Amino acid sequence: MTTPDDAAFDARYVPADPYYAGWAPAPPRPRTDGLAIAALVTALVGLGLVAVGLGVAALVRIRRRGTAGRGLAIAGVVIGALEMVVAIALVVTVVLTWQQTRPLAGDVDHEQTVHARQLVAGTCLRELPPDGTVDEVTAVPCAQAHEAEVVSVYDFDAAAVWPGQAQADARVARSCELSDDEQAAGARIVTWAPTQQGWSRGDRSGLCLVVTG
């Protein structure tokens, strides 16, 4: 038989249900998505396109499954996208540089705008550009009316140091000569030498042009 005091004792000391005591066991943490980890790793090793693909796939799977790693996936996508932009810019730069330095075949078969570094002996120019730094010129077939023709190329030593503009001009000029027929026809020589800026980019060629106009 339970006395009133015993009942009070029992009510006071019976342990409470743990789920109502404020310390329920924490639910397990979601695991990190493997694709998210792979996206960040591939981005860090420079595989931009792969990282973007893995990161996008990881974000889709994380949203569907509720796994962790969204931040890793986003980081992989961002870094990978930046690497792709840099890679595209480098490719464009290489292509443009190649186009500006690829020598012509000599006489061209149609009128075209070319970079001065592409000119070779036998290329004819529709007109001479104004005095000063020469960048782009218009090459035309020599059978058409033209103002000048490249008759020779002077190559500086690839290991030479910059001699100064006056010396560069003089060296190219000394290599240029007119034939007797050209002299009789009243032709004159125009010389183009590398500038210091062009020299620093690897330009080591000077041009001798015969102007007939």
UniProtKB/TrEMBL annotation:
InterPro entries (UniProt xref): DUF4190, Septum_form
Keyword tags: Membrane, Transmembrane, Transmembrane helix
Boundaries of every DUF4190 domain copy: 35-89
Name of a matching Pfam family: Septum_form
Transmembrane segments: 35-60, 72-98
Top-level lineage group: Bacteria
Official protein name in the record: DUF4190 domain-containing protein
